[in-house]
TrEMBL record:
Coiled-coil annotated residue ranges, if any: none
Species per Swiss-Prot/TrEMBL record: Providencia huashanensis
A Pfam family: HTH_22
Residue ranges constituting the YheO-like domain according to the UniProt record: 10-120
The organism's taxonomic lineage, starting at the top: Bacteria, Pseudomonadati, Pseudomonadota, Gammaproteobacteria, Enterobacterales
Sequence ranges assigned to domain Transcriptional regulator DauR-like HTH in this UniProt record: 146-205
Protein name (record): PAS domain-containing protein
Length: 209
């Protein structure tokens, strides 16, 4: 690969890195490595969280890529940490040239400190006591419907209220097959949780039958 073409490739990767860092700021550091220069591989650091500097050497993962073109292009969501001990979730993407050799790497390092704190707070917030008193504010079974709807939406990386028409129809069919539409006030519960009318739920149920 010519120096001009290689420099152009690195420049384009750096633009992508900058965009990613601005999208996920302030939690994500994005680093561009020039694997042609392993001893001084760090070409740029956007949203610097690790304290590293431009011109510092590549990591063990970078060296492994240089040694073997068969090394995976993407290593996603692996456990890592900054030098001060902060937990990190990292993803490393290798970039090859026309000959199939690794020449660059784009690395994302997500600081998990705040997210773990939020997870801890949420766990405490949803924790309930072991009181001997039991009370049911709403009919039994409706919570199971809500949970199942949320599970289905999560499997599509979306939320209950942003499901598309075809996805709603599939959801209704799933609820029917699992017996959840037999629960008292099932249609009303589904409509409320999806943010649509009961008439729409009945229509989806009819199409799914």
């Amino acid at each position: 690969m010519s120096d001009l073409k290689e420099n152009s490739l690195l420049a384009q990767i750096d633009i992508i890195a900058k965009g990613l860092s601005e999208t996920f700021a302030p939690f994500c550091e994005v680093v561009v490595h020039d694997l042609k220069k392993p001893e001084h591989s760090i070409l740029s650091i956007h949203n610097n969280l690790s304290g590293r500097q431009i011109g510092e050497p590549t990591t063990e993962l970078g060296l492994a890529r240089i040694e073997s073109p068969d090394f995976p292009n993407i290593i996603a969501n692996y456990t890592n940490q900054f030098t001060d001990g902060r937990p990190v979730k990292s993803t490393s993407i290798g970039i090859k040239d026309d000959s199939g050799q690794y020449v660059a790497a784009l690395c994302l390092n997500l600081d998990m400190t705040l997210f773990r704190g939020m997870q801890s707070m949420l766990s405490q917030f949803i924790e309930v006591g072991n009181s001997p008193i039991k009370e049911h504010i709403e009919p039994n079974g409706t919570e199971a419907i809500r949970i199942r709807i949320d599970q289905y939406a999560a499997s599509l990386a979306t939320t209950a209220r942003t499901l598309k028409a075809e996805e709603r129809k599939n959801l209704i069919e799933i609820l029917r097959n699992e017996g959840l539409l037999d629960v008292k006030k099932a249609m009303e519960t589904v409509a409320q949780h999806l943010g649509i009318s009961r008439a729409s739920v009945y229509l989806y149920a009819k199409k799914a039958s």
